[in-house]
TrEMBL record:
It comes from Tanacetum coccineum. Keywords: Nucleotidyltransferase, RNA-directed DNA polymerase, Transferase. Coiled coil: none annotated. Pfam families: Retrotrans_gag. GO terms for molecular function: RNA-directed DNA polymerase activity. Residues 117-209 form the Retrotransposon gag domain. This is Reverse transcriptase domain-containing protein. The keyword Transferase applies.
């Protein structure tokens, strides 16, 4: 039979820490390769600026064509319309594509020319953006376009413009021509809206006032949307827009003419004369 003191000693023995022999905690484990590398460098070498990390973000494929060079007039033309980050990036790409399409080399892909020239078309905030992109992170023209658009035309802006297109309506005092031009402007601002041509046709028709809808239906001999494909519908919109514009211009001209005739009428001249020479009216 165990006594109480024997049981206490047994529990103390069971809870004693395990001691590992020949292990000195005061000596740190050091990688000998690191020590050797540090010992072999001088203080000047350790303080020297790194020589890596200065590569451009855009990687231009090797060009092995003979007598190839970017002419200064082409660079000047690209630089004549620099993108600073405040303009519409889609318009900038349209302009850039138009300029670069004028320069062709039989042995050099047009995409390589674009990759070479694109940095020259940026300034300010846009140039800072490109400089901050990781080195060698843009390998193709499609990569560059995708990153450029996402930076300066984020998905939130696309969503905002899509909602404006979906909820478009003709203003109370807005002519057909003015509404149509405004609607086309929204589509132009948002190339990635994703709406089919038939959807665009339907959206604009349903945004019009009843008078303009009736005029379209009458010209179509029924319901305008039923028998029209997208191209026919857009053609009719353009025709009515031109007619609306001409009619609006004619009304403005008529009002201007009437205003001039009113100012030069004899009654007005008499009134002016009487006011200028009050004694003659007596």
């Amino acid at each position: 039979m165990r006594t109480r003191s024997q049981s206490r000693r047994r529990r103390q023995q069971q809870t004693l820490p395990v001691v590992v022999e020949n292990f000195d905690l005061e000596e740190p484990i050091v990688d000998q390769n690191i020590v050797a590398m540090a010992d072999n460098r001088t203080m000047a070498q350790m303080l020297q600026a790194p020589i890596e990390g200065y590569e451009d973000a855009i990687v231009v494929p090797p060009i092995n064509a003979n007598n190839f060079e970017l002419k200064q007039p082409l660079i000047n033309l690209v630089q004549s319309n620099k993108f600073t980050g405040r303009q519409d990036p889609h318009n900038h790409l349209r302009f850039f594509n138009k300029v670069t399409s004028t320069f062709r080399h039989p042995e050099v892909p047009n995409t390589s020319i674009k990759l070479l020239l694109f940095p020259f078309s940026l300034d300010g905030e846009a140039r800072d953006w490109l400089d901050k992109e990781p080195p060698r992170s843009i390998l193709t023209w499609d990569d560059l376009v995708s990153k450029f658009i996402n930076q300066f035309f984020p998905p939130s802006k696309t969503t905002y413009l899509r909602n404006k297109i979906t909820n478009f309506f003709q203003e109370p005092n807005e002519t057909f021509n003015e509404a149509w031009e405004r609607f086309k402007g929204l589509l132009h601002q948002c190339p990635r809206h994703g709406f089919s041509e038939l959807h665009q046709l339907d959206t604009f028709y349903n945004s019009l006032n009843s008078n303009d809808q009736d005029a379209l239906d009458s010209a179509a001999g029924g319901n305008f949307l039923v028998d029209k494909n997208a191209q026919e519908g857009f053609s009719d919109y353009e025709s009515k827009s031109k007619s609306s514009y001409s009619s609006s211009r004619a009304k403005i001209q008529e009002l201007s003419t009437n205003a001039l005739l009113s100012k030069s009428s004899p009654s007005n001249n008499s009134s002016i004369c009487n006011n200028k020479y009050p004694l003659l009216s007596r």
